[in-house]
């Protein structure tokens, strides 16, 4: 890439020297990293490996995590399939499709967006942000609710990479302000603790909690879209350049036309929103917010004193015990889709979110509540992850105790429990004692420092997460860069093969941070061989023709020479192109040079995949570099002859452009 820098950017001699020195050091570090990674630590025994291998090959079972709490659940595959199919037969919620609609829906959305962009109904930036390419269908899976009888499944749609995913993300971003935070919405447990501790208590009042039954599945889609439209166009006929009809159309695309597959069949969810859809929480919040706005006066008349809601869970203080029936009856007669269940306080206590609230003469106090699903399983001390995550986990759990427990006795009790739990997760006793002591000392003498606060945010592993979730956490953290901070924070994910990686990572951050004044590099570690990856339970797409963002290899049946290529769209398109005699491709070049050879793009093999186009290009080049496929060279030579320029440079430029974009 150096040649391109020299050519395109005008730089002074010293700047160039610094740049070269930086690149050199970076290269040295990269080689050091590769060297160190060769001695990857394996913390499982042979017997454990064999057992896992055997389990992963058993086709009659499904191994998943539980819906809540950190637990592993083994189910019979046949039971799992029957339960999901029962869910799919719920009246008026799902519609089976004749075939996978991905290709046609993606093209249709592309056309719609192009039209909107041409008519300036969306900006060019937005167009580029949401244009789908190489999409796949959604995938439905279920997570078992182990604390309920019959272990029902919570249906979830994995929507990343679907044709309307980026559009839905964008709509979520611009529609969020339509639900004002100051109403009745709680941000998290800590928000609840703060608010509840500020309520003045009056004698005879009573605590209750309400829970909306299956809120996501029961949200009336079209009705909620109308609520959104009414709010968006309340003061103007234009909302983010869109008119009402456009926004409505896009919202329908993102909800009722979000097909997914399960067990080889394709479905649309025609009512309710899917768990996993980027718009799910917004729809739930806006629908409930409207419900509250419409009915709060009446609820107050019936005796509601306080009302706080976290998605579908409501905490409420009511005038006295006896008015609860009227309140519940009223709420359950307002909308046919929305039914609440009620839980009353017992012995002046009630659990809500992760807390247990106690009503006292002086007011409300909170302490930690361990749900029945709590397993006490946390990131194990022996697991192959950076030490900083394990220490941060202790800090995080201490911080939770400190902020949730109102009184000293409860705090001490929870710290004792925590010590016990950490010991069960194999944390060494002296580390537990030291860290907790350090935390308490810190908290009692001074408020948390900036650095400690950042540490809390950096912890991605309160419950051990998969690589995808880790990446998401990192992405989430990238969003709220404080405006007063001039430094831009960038993240890099490195595989954690052994603890020597720590030293290299700190050298890397030092190098980058000292070279670029306004940049702060942070390293996140990814466990390379997570056990969970052996048990992919989500329905994988088996048809290779429908895969996208892949590196593939085609072999000539006659001479065995190979070609390596990449495809960011659905592979079928590329196969058709390769086999089209009129198009310029490596396969056609080879056929022209060797008319008797048999080579068919349909026989291509997928050798790698990536999650974005830039990584895909890099991976393609790495594979080409490693395997030196003859047909690529042959084609590059033919390309040079015909176009009078080097294909390698053209590819490099594409990469540099992609990097900038
Ligand atoms: Zn050949």
Notable traits:
five-stranded mixed β-sheet, four-stranded antiparallel β-sheet, 661 residues, globular, alpha+beta, 19 strands, binds zinc ion, 16% strand
Task: Tell me about this structure.
- By secondary structure, this protein is an alpha+beta fold.
- The protein has 24 helices and 19 strands.
- Strand 9 and strand 10 (313-318) form a beta hairpin.
- The radius of gyration is 28 Å and the shape is globular.
- It binds zinc ion.
- The site of zinc ion has 8 residues, from loops.
What's the gist of this structure?
This protein has 661 residues and is of the alpha+beta class. 47% of the residues lie in helices and 16% in strands.
Let me know the average pLDDT: 85
Helix-strand category: alpha+beta
Principal-axes shape call: globular
Which residue ranges are poorly predicted, with pLDDT under 50 across at least 5 consecutive positions?
Answer: 1-9, 455-484
Q: What strand line-up does the widest sheet have?
A: 3-8-7-4-5
Q: Which band does the percent of strand residues land in? A: 15-25%
Q: What characterizes the major β-sheet? A: 5 strands, mixed
Bound molecules: zinc ion
Determine the fraction of residues in helical runs and give it as a percent range. 40-55%
Rg, rounded, reads 28 Å
| First-last Cα distance | 16 Å
Count of β-strands: 19
Per DSSP, the total helix count is 24
